Amino acid sequence: MSTPKQATANEILNTAEALRWQIGGNFHQHLMEAIYTDAAQIADRAVTRPDAPPRFDLDRAIDRLVTSRLWGFPLMVLLFTVVFWLTIEGANYPSQFLAWILLDNVHPFLKEMAMTVGLPWWLDGLLIDGMYLATAWVVSVMLPPMAIFFPLFTLLEDFGYLPRVAFNLDNIFKKSGAHGKQALSMMMGFGCNAAGVIATRVIDSPRERLIAIITNNFALCNGRWPTQILIATLFIGALVPAYLGGLISALAVVGIALLGVFLTFAVSWALSRTWLRGEASTFSLELPPFRPPRIWQTIYTSIIDRTVFVLWRAIVFALPAGAAIWLIANVTISGTSIAEYMINFLNPMGFLIGLNGVILVAYIVAIPANEIVIPTVLMLTVLTTGVSDIGAGAGVMFEAGNNQTAALFHAGGWTLLTAVNLMLFSLIHNPCSTTIYTIFKETGSKKWATVSALLPLAMGFTVTFVVAQVWRLVAGLG
């Protein structure tokens, strides 16, 4: 009587015997021919023969260019500038279309429905002017850039370029005490910091992965692009003739993004020599061959796995944020709204760092989603200045045209210093709640989630304070 193990062994042997006859008697010969053919191809690429004419290898020609000491970094900056430009320019029309649907059509329809059913004014305002408009703004502003950036980023990954980015940045990250693969998570952070934090899973060392998680905030995420672009257009681009305005504004935004990369290196260097000391790990980075990207599969995967996932998290946090914005703007104490009390309380601190109370309150209530910073600033500026002829009332979030927005900012006392420090603070300040929550889930530690939130916030206050004092000192001397 055979045992179960003997029966299993007999089944394996019988299956092997059957397969042997199915593959035929020439299998061994074909296998050896394939091995020798591959070996000959490898030898042709690796061995140089003096009497043979040089062979052109496209992969090696591209690698010599994109990984060279001279051209590697300029080409990398140029390529990602093109990706960002395509993201920004390509997202304009879809964003406008979504805003037209969600803000210009659905919102008035919901208001009419609320009036028809006799919804109380406070419930109407809380649900429609607060929660709905916050969510609609996040969707209209966040969805198009992510739907463009993530597929482009994934196409570069499929093509085989991102490992070359890691190769180029590996030496700099190593000198800063971080891991070369942090370049990949940093690039993902330019789309969304929460996705960048998740991308740090490719780093095996817990210490170096933690450095990558903490510093990912300095990658200018897509939620902060609207703030950077709008402020650069209204204030930086306005300093030069109109035909140069677009170029100067774009360069200002690219400069802010590069400053974020520099801060990533600087903070990684500081962390690796203080809280997170340790031996730098090594890794073997295999440069895969360049290959044609699978376009449709890439688009489908990036939208389902990345865009929808991150957008859903943003919506979950935008709903309560919209309610908070509406409440502080409409709940009054002794005839003054809570928002006005908060603005007046924070104005002195805002002056010290070259900002104002409106901006600080906006960043407090917009912690759940960076996308709602600008509409919150506009709403609160309307509330404090009394300017109400641009299509919005107190406590209602809206999107104004550039000329109207510039006039409103100037009415609120904004200067070039306010604009510059807002761009700096937008880059450096604490991560959004989606990213903080993701950090907590990835690290399983409240301590590191708190450090990831408070460290950049402290840096943001410090940098803007120094810039404001130097700016005023120079202006006073002039």
Explain what the structure shows.
The protein has 478 residues and is mostly helical. 74% of the residues lie in helices and 1% in strands. The chain is built from 19 helices and two strands. The chain has a two-stranded antiparallel sheet. Strand 1 and strand 2 form a beta hairpin. Helix 9 (206-215) runs antiparallel to helix 11 (242-272) and helix 9 crosses helix 19. The longest helix has 45 residues, at 72-116. The radius of gyration is 28 Å and the shape is globular. Residues 389-400 have low confidence and may be disordered.
The CA-CA distance between the termini, in Å, is: 103 Å
- H and E order: HHHHHHHHHHHHEEHHHHHHH
Radius of gyration: 28 Å
Which class do the helix and strand fractions yield? Answer: mainly alpha
Approximate helicity band:
over 70%
What can be said about the biggest beta sheet?
A: 2 strands, antiparallel
Approximately what portion of the residues adopt beta-strand conformation? under 5%
Total number of helical segments? 19
Count the E strands: 2
Cα shape: globular
**Low-confidence regions:** 389-400
Strand order of the largest sheet: 1-2
The mean pLDDT is 82
